[in-house]
Amino acid sequence: MAPAAPMGRGGSRAAPAAAAPPWHVLPDEVWEHAFSFLPADSDRGAAAAACRSWLRAERRSRRRLAVANCYAASPQDAVDRFPAVRAVEVKGKPHFADFGLVPPAWGAAAAPWVAAAADGWPLLEEISFKRMVVTDDCLEMIAASFRNFQVLRLVSCEGFSTAGLAAIAAGCRNLRELDLQENEIEDCSIHWLSLFPESFTSLVTLNFSCLEGDVNITVLERLVTRCHNLKTLKLNNAIPLDKLANLLRKAPQIVELGTGRFSADYHPDLFSKLEAAFAGCKSLRRLSGAWDAVPEYLPAFYCVCDGLTSLNLSYTTVRGPELIKFISRCKKLQLLWVMDLIEDRGLAVVASSCNKLQELRVFPSAPFDAAEQVSLTERGLVDVSASCPMLESVLYFCRRMTNEALITIAKNRPNFTCFRLCIIEPHTPDYTTHQPLDAGFSAIVESCKGLRRLSVSGLLTDIVFKSIGAHADRLEMLSIAFAGNSDLGLHYILSGCKSLKKLEIRDCPFGDKPLLANAAKLETMRSLWMSTCSLTLGACRQLARKMPRLSVEVMNDPRRRCPLDSLTDESPVETLYVYRTIAGPRFDTPACVQIV
Amino acid sequence: MSPPLEPHDYIGLSAAAAPPTPTSSSSSSSSPAPRLTLRLGLPGSESPDRDRDCCEDVAAALSLGPLPAAPKAAAASAGVSAKRAFPDPAQRPGAAAKASDDKQQASPAAPPAAKAQVVGWPPVRNYRKNTLAASASKSKAPAEEAASGGGGPMYVKVSMDGAPYLRKVDIKMYSSYEDLSMALEKMFSCFITGQSGLHKSSSKDRLTNGSKVDALKDQEYVLTYEDKDADWMLVGDLPWDYFTSICRKLKIMRRSDAVGIAPRTIEQTGEIGAALSFLSH
């Protein structure tokens, strides 16, 4: 019989000869090889669900594992199911932890994961932790447990110090990447950089931009010199400008650079030194850092502008003409992160110069100061969306918006995959018509059929949620704040949005009814966050009873215990965090969090 | 499929509906169904009904979002109010039931300056907030210096051990630690028995040699400052511009008294390093 097995993209068809074995008895190695061509974990998961032999083959050959919620499964579950993992990524706290809405000591400890990995995955090469509590002990255990450890990536983590970094430097002989992004790292004044041995040359990525405190520049220079494969170097704020020039001369092969402190009084000879150093960096494609950049030095970068594909100036407080001149020279830019100091006129220049732009993020320079106004409005976003045909991801902080602008943007750019608009003042309506922005956001979801991530803001009623529920079929993550006017809003979302995985809501008038009516939906999602809504404890209890495979966490004031038993069903719930899990309730909650 | 949800006034907004008995949002059938309006007030609070179109006022008022229906437990309501970090004195943390006269809604006439911040809004990451705050204070200082000594003067008290009175200096008048120490020397010369200049350093010196260490050893006095966290630190670690923005007070301590504030080695710099060395001796 001629097998026409769906073996995944790139899998080969077995020869259509009568002598060939039926496809379902082919040895595991064949399936493992076939599955290696499946690009997405979800595809592998789907294959594993087909039959037992595929399950066996798939799980045994899985090399990369991403655990999007550290409490969805226990570390031991993960190790048992996928014994051959070489790279693991684990994410902990909910997204709103970034904005201070999650109580301290909420959880997300990395230690159980490191311990289980040390035991079950001795060949582990890569670890990524995001929004987790990583201690120095964890880092020491990592350094001691995996003889071929190569990549450590910590994003938005906390709980460790330079002592932990010292353990990594000293212990990981084959380290290729040390990538520290936006972590809170305690500075114990330990010279961790010096602990990379002289024989150590394998570093490809070194990012310590979030480290406060000094590093020994001489040691850094020696490290950079001997690591000939160094491609990414992101310095922290303690590295002054003249040292940057020296480092660049020692690593002209770098592809990605995060500059250190870029402010200094203008000296022509320092400028020439920098310019010459940059001229030598022919492979430089991605640039970030430039804190406190002094405009007079920006032209030193001009020689690399032609090749730049990624520019992160979101910590640069340079304004006006110098900034615009600089960006306009970067014609190949695909990613631009910038402060709203660029203003509409700057974005108009970006629109005309940077046609290859795929991702734009505009951050607020003075988010808490209503008096300090920059001239960044809906105009800038309209211009960019009109002129950049490949634009698909936007994060935009502004103070005013109109429905008409959003409708225009939607028409121009149906290819958005990520659209996050934050109008800084809650409940802000269309400033010309004073209407809610329902029509604008509805246009976005109707037009952008591939939209995967959406954040809405401004004055919004239930109407917009009806549109989102009905049209946003591919939407995976939705963030809502200060929007809606009744339970209907939430009901529309939960009963629609076929692909919804993460829903986070704050300060909306959504109550118990839609939550209970759509309880089953929650099991198809990764997580739901609702804070400062209209929920009661009774509904949470009911939800927990109805859906045993959901973990229903209730959080109230962090300074108080959460004595749930004494509270009645009518008690309001300040924060609800619900997620599906196969691991049962966790036991590491602080006093202000309780699992219902 | 559950029965269709009707839009209902979840908060019980009409002035008449001030239910002393707790109502959950699901049992809305008893409450009247007024026109839907965006309101921030508590059930029964007496602010005028707003047209949904006049949302400018709502926007101007502090938006905390709607509050849940009247709770019974004091702890829960205290939890709700305390969490918001809302300085409005009208917020009564001990309130049990939200009585009809409890006005928590910010009045529309309140000027924007009186607006308190909502926790976690706008959604700017803590890391970004902290980084921008640090660079803002750093950049404001040199910017003000550059504007020909403009921006207001920054007077800080200077005390000296053993001196009968304090002095005040405008630290913005000086452009480096050297300048400051010379000026202080002159100011306090009547009390000092001839010593070499106080602390001077630059980042280069700190990194490349230990001359700073030697200088301190020779002196009879050390210059310390109190920063915004009310910690006493040794002067000289930070870049000058940043120092001027965070220095609150200066103190010239006798070397023998400054045992806790020991000279640092080259690598130990930065506030955290200084604080730790302060404690470890």
Automatic annotation (TrEMBL), chain A:
One matching Pfam family: Transp_inhibit
Compartments, record wording: Nucleus
Species for this entry: Miscanthus lutarioriparius
PANTHER family associated with the record: F-BOX/TPR REPEAT PROTEIN POF3, PROTEIN TRANSPORT INHIBITOR RESPONSE 1
Biological processes, Gene Ontology terms: auxin-activated signaling pathway; SCF-dependent proteasomal ubiquitin-dependent protein catabolic process
Subunit note: Part of a SCF (SKP1-cullin-F-box) protein ligase complex. May interact with auxin and auxin-responsive proteins.
Protein name: Transport inhibitor response 1-like protein
Domain spans labelled COI1 F-box: 26-63
TrEMBL record, chain B:
A single BP term in Gene Ontology: auxin-activated signaling pathway
Entry protein name: Auxin-responsive protein
Known role: Aux/IAA proteins are short-lived transcriptional factors that function as repressors of early auxin response genes at low auxin concentrations.
Any one Pfam family match given in the protein's UniProt record, by short name: AUX_IAA
Assembly information from the UniProt record: Homodimers and heterodimers.
Localization (cell): Nucleus
Family (UniProt): Belongs to the Aux/IAA family.
Compositional bias (Low complexity): 14-34, 72-83, 105-117, 133-147
Organismal lineage: Eukaryota, Viridiplantae, Streptophyta, Embryophyta, Tracheophyta
Entry keywords, A to Z: Auxin signaling pathway, Nucleus, Repressor, Transcription, Transcription regulation
Domain (PB1) ranges: 153-257
UniProt-annotated stretches for the region Disordered: 1-53, 72-153
Main location: nucleus
UniProt keyword Transcription regulation present: yes
Entry's Gene Ontology cellular component terms: nucleus
InterPro entries, A to Z: AUX/IAA_dom, AUX_IAA, PB1-like
Keyword Transcription: yes
